[in-house]
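Now read the record:
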Amino acid sequence: MGFPRSVGRLFLLSDEDGASFGIRDVDIEDEEIEPLDANWTAEKADAYTPDAYDKYIGARLLIPKNGERVYARVTKRKKDENGRPIGQRHENPMLDTRQFEVELPDGSTDEYFANTIAENIYAQVDSEGREQAIVKEIIDHKSDGNAIPKSQGFYKTSSGNMRPKRTTSGWKLCVEWVDGTSDWLPLKDLKESNPVEVAEYAVANKIEEEPAFKWWVPYVLKKRNWILSKVKSKYWRTTHKFGIELPHSVEEAYEIDKRMGTLHWTKAIEKEMKKINSLQAFEKVEGITPDGLRKDATKLPGHAEVGLHMIFDVEMDGNFTRKARLVANGNETPTRIPKYDRYARSVVSRESVRIGFLYEALNDLDILSCDISNAYLNAPCTEKLWTEAGAEFGSDKGAVMIFKKVVYGLQSAGSSWHATLAKTLTDMGFTPSRADQDVWLKESKDEKGELYHEWIICYVDDILAISKKPKDIMDQIGKVYDLKGTVEEPIRYLGAKVGKWQLPDGREVWCMSGKDYIKNAIKLVKGMLEKKGQALTNGKSMERPMRKDYRPELDVSPELGKAETAEFQQLIG
């Protein structure tokens, strides 16, 4: 829902001297002004306050207090004697002068500047925003029907030896964190982050003979001192990101906003549903209830029910913008619906992009890139599906909704979008290359009347146009689809850094660099080896990955499981 003009007037206040100050002074985030909504009410207007729009409100952070670090929560903006919020927001957190009130665990409050809050938040999370949680102790355990019993805890190798099965399935451990909270975590996760603590707990509680523990606990205890020096004992919590609590359902998102006195998640949901509704992704069916349809499927012949859920995230953009995306439970698609070719999607090869850059250099062309917003929602849904509207649908909650457009998560999403984009490009006069179906070509003439080919390269919703006039191509695409951001020269494509390079003769050509990819690949491999205690050491003398005298036919070590096999394949490429 937009920000009606009538609400704007609520913030046109006056101080004791009669001087007025407006929305900019109370530091409301920039918001697109839309016509007054017919359903707008005074109650909804009252919900829009300066705190409701502030991105730091509700954030959790570790701060130093009395010689230790304690968890605190940002509750509201500090105001001066005239009721005005103190400070001004800035895109650079270090130049942000806003002041906030922070609530400590004992109920007392303290005051912190925005730059101090940002510094604490970034210091306690990894590069993806996951929060580091410190284990105080393991307090309980449980297993379910998926746990392997002791009688089935071994398997026979091809050489006839009995080996313990490498499994952690079916077990969960209850962990108490240093902040006093507790969570049930899968054994496989806690084993990686806190192996020694888990091993000691298993022995103390006499569960070390269970198959999920037997194959690794003795080794960990034997190598305890060495492991403690190598393993970083931390568990990255998925309940928070950048100190912001992540909801796992729409109802929980609304509850968090209500508890924090904010509208961050509510607005993120409204923004997502606005896109969904504008593209008419669903059609409401009148006169049928979900329960009635489940009892009598003939009311919608051939249609199957598929659930929906929201995925929530926090962007690392300096404002901690909350994001929400509606996703279908594609795994619920029944087998009677045709199995679509999941590889029929717009995914160009890196070789084709390089050839395109070469063609650009040889013919002195220009390149522009664009990103199509909500690409999948532009494609019609070819599956006959319905869903029960959730709380995110507002007044239509509980209604039967038919899928009219492809929603993220459906098995047919990739192929439907591929077909939709292909029709658009065909209508523009382009034809797919025989060598790569995601490279589209069209004959054109330059200013001298000489023939050349215009190129369109597609990677899902990322488009490259190579032409004498690539802006004209982008304008045509923009008439059909909503383009995200601005049309500009590309700086990254297919995960590689791209840009112009000047040759010795002064000419500028486009090139791709795998430098960032290689750096990340090396970092990934180092991390994998460090987890296994096989970190590479610096120095001239290094052993080969395989010994010269290695004889695989004589190797009687345990065979690799699925996880280890995947890791091996990843390491060798």
